[in-house]
Amino acid sequence: MPKPRAESAIKLPLRDKPDDLWLDELRADCAKAMVEYLKRANVNLDRQIKSLSRRELEGMAEACTARWIARVSDRHVNRKPEDPPDPLAIFLA
Description:
Blueprint: H1 5-9, H2 19-40, H3 54-77, H4 87-92
Helix pairs in contact: 2-3
C-alpha cells in the first residue's frame, strides 16, 4: 500500500517540501501549539470551546501565531539561494 502523500513528504528537508504539504504540516503544528498552551494552562480539553474564557482563547491564538511566525521564518531562512523569492507566498505566509 503506498504511503499517503503527506507521510512520504515528512522525510524531505523543510525547504524541499511542496507548499501544500508544508502548509498541512504547519497547520497541524499550530494546532499542537494550541493544545500545549491549554495543557500548560490546566484547561480541561473536554470543555466546549464556547465555555473558554477570553484569556484562554487569546492564549491559544498567541501560541498558534507564535508557532506560525517561527515556522514561516525558518522556511524563508532555509530557502535555497537559487530559489527566486515569491512575493505572494511571503505575503500569504
